[in-house]
Amino acid sequence: YVILQEYIEGADQGDVRILLLNGEPIGAMKRVPGTDDHRSNVTAGGSVQKHNMTQAEKDLCKQIGPKLVKDGLFFVGIDVIGGKLVEVNVMSPGGITYINKVYKPKVKVEEKVIDFLESKVLSKLQAFNRRSRLRKTVEDA
Fold first, then answer.
1. 139 within domain boundaries
2. Given this model, what pLDDT does residue 32 score?
3. Which residues of 2-31 are buried (b: 16+ CB within 10 A; e: fewer)?
4. 108 phi, psi to nearest 5 deg
5. Is residue 23 part of a domain?
6. Is 67 contained in some domain?
7. 23, 68, 80, 105: which is deepest, by most CB within 10 A?
8. What residue ranges of the chain have pLDDT lower than 70?
9. Which tens digits make up the pLDDT trace of 54-75?
């Protein structure tokens, strides 16, 4: 089998990884290819740089964020090249350590993720406790 994909203008300059939490961007970085590989992944020899999101990238996040949350995808990494969404990383939305590193000490992405997860767990626990009390009340009646 052969898979062909049209070349995306600007791909040779790297891509942008944006982390979304609950549909909102919480960090972004530019990934630049190394000299010996066209891929911009750090594991393939690429490097990371600070990146201020463009208006187009912010608009893209506003457009896809609610759909991701609706589908239960609360923490994802998206890859953008030339203003085009090229990948949505759901199982492995990596980049936290690299974003923290290039924005150190101002950004600590993991704190935002942990706070969100704690609030999600607490919310589920409170809902479970309410249902349990209601069930007991009905059983006792």
1. no
2. 93
3. eeeeeeeeebeebbbbbbbbbbebbbbbbb
4. -135, 85
5. yes
6. yes
7. 80
8. 141
9. 999 999 999 999 999 999 999 9
